[in-house]
Write a structure and sequence with these properties.
alpha+beta, 1 helix, globular, binds copper (II) ion
Length: about 160
């Protein structure tokens, strides 16, 4: 008798556990509407002319209701990666760039960009550079950045 009822009990227990997990997941997502929801698109790096310096561009879209900030970038390509914005004709290093709520942060030629100094190798067109973006709030995002021809400008 016991042998027969055990599987049933187990199934009930399992169902309860699944329901509980689903409930927890839902709770964890509560207010998820307001958390930053980041997605990176159109990453590229123009093939650097020398091994001393490279730049990279991409767009970070935030579909969440809370603003975030790009605070740092890490990569095997360089130990010295900084975030720059362009003011007039001059570029300026900044500690972070804002990713507005329900908006986007664009890095592109003549504007915001990443600057890689003292490269560990010279990336060639067709190769990919892995970078990791760190944010004030959202979890880090790893991005595979394709290397394009020098002077490449994406179509928008
Ligand atoms: Cu710069």
């Amino acid at each position: 008798m016991n042998r027969r009822t055990t599987p049933v009990n187990r199934r009930i227990a399992l169902t309860a556990a699944v329901t509980l997990t689903a409930g927890l997941a839902l709770t964890a997502c509560g207010g998820g509407d307001s958390a930053p929801q980041l997605k990176v698109s159109d990453p590229y790096m123009p093939q650097p002319v020398t091994q001393s310096m490279a730049g990279a561009y991409f767009v970070i879209k935030n579909s969440g209701g809370t603003a975030d900030k790009l605070t740092s970038v890490t990569s095997d390509l360089s130990k010295d990666i900084t975030i720059h914005k362009t003011v007039g004709n001059k570029m300026e290093q900044v500690n972070s760039l804002p990713v507005p709520a329900n908006g986007e942060l664009t890095l592109g030629p003549g504007g915001n960009h990443l600057m890689f100094m003292g490269l560990s190798k010279k990336p060639a067109e067709g190769q990919t550079v892995t970078i990791k973006l760190h944010f004030a709030t959202a979890a880090p995002i790893t991005v595979q950045v394709p290397v394009k021809a020098t002077g490449y400008t994406p179509k928008h």
